[in-house]
Design goal:
Bound molecules: NADP nicotinamide-adenine-dinucleotide phosphate
CATH topology: Rossmann fold
CATH superfamily: NAD(P)-binding Rossmann-like Domain
Shape: globular
Number of strands: 7
Helix content: 40-55%
Order of helices and strands: EHEHEHEHHEHEHHEHH
Radius of gyration: 18 Å
Largest sheet: 7 strands, parallel
Strand order of the largest sheet: 3-2-1-4-5-6-7
CATH architecture: 3-Layer(aba) Sandwich
Strand content: 5-15%
Number of domains: 1
Length: 281
Amino acid sequence: MAARRPVALITGASSGIGAAFARLFAAKGHDLALAALPDALLPAMADEIAARGRHPPVVVPVDLTLKDSGLRIANEMAAHGVEPAFIVNCAGFGLVGPAAALNRDQQLAMIDLNVRAVADLSLRFIDSLIRHRGGILNVASVSAFVPSPEMAVYHASKTFVLSLSEALHCELAPHGVRVTTMCSGPVATQFQYRAGIRSKLPRLLACSPEFVAARAYDGLMRGKRVVIPGVGNKVLSVILRLIPRFILLPGQVGAMRFAAKPPAQGFPKLSHWTEPGELPP
Ligand SMILES: NC(=O)c1ccc[n+]([C@@H]2O[C@H](COP(=O)([O-])OP(=O)(O)OC[C@H]3O[C@@H](n4cnc5c(N)ncnc54)[C@H](OP(=O)(O)O)[C@@H]3O)[C@@H](O)[C@H]2O)c1
């Protein structure tokens, strides 16, 4: 079999943090394969990167909630003669509201995307990651450190990502593969709108997509287990783990109700925000 060209496979590369990862990995000299839902944004991102003189990224339009999405990505990459040296599992969404009231199918789709697809892609390409002494960067959240009523499935999904990734960090280190989990606080992207969060982002915690991507990339290359971008979020992650659950959980209810209103039906496409903390009307 002819040697395949190593690339960084980035999911959710069409917007937000994933788009920042795509630009950063390209700027650092990686060739790319970009995966997200089929729409106009992904080819535009690939064109933008190719226009900077980089090898044109392989574009993989795929719905990662589908069970065969990992196989589709593998087939598409093989057809283009590339294989992952790095994988960035960034695609994901959240929903705010009582779990019993939120749409059950959407919550299960969240598990398919935030959990099953992350596990699939983390495990599927290990041979190739070992060959290239590369790594996996899994995007979790400070939500991973605590359960949260009013955002129950999302927090649980990110706890899974953190737990899986920390274990893989140990298992794969002897094989020369780095596994890093990024646990960011609030980042101004379309995530809040899709989740149903309508309040301004807290100034002390909010970071830009570019900032969190840069911290995570640096941590991955240095072989760090967990990266928490921003001093405020580092402090928050410690506090969250120290507060007894009987105090924390009722507090979370109040915080989420303050931040949210019921999520919009479907996931409307928004133009990208430019101002951190800004929210659409
Ligand atoms: N923003 C925050 O405050 C925050 C904080 C902590 C952690 N995170 C995590 O960061 C990650 C990226 O979120 P973001 O803030 O950048 O949000 P975003 O701007 O909404 O980006 C989400 C990305 O995931 C892709 N995606 C959604 N559903 C998909 C599906 N079924 N199949 C394939 N791709 C799909 C989207 O593609 P389309 O654009 O084509 O729909 C988009 O590229 C998520 O895992 C999120 O949980 C975000």
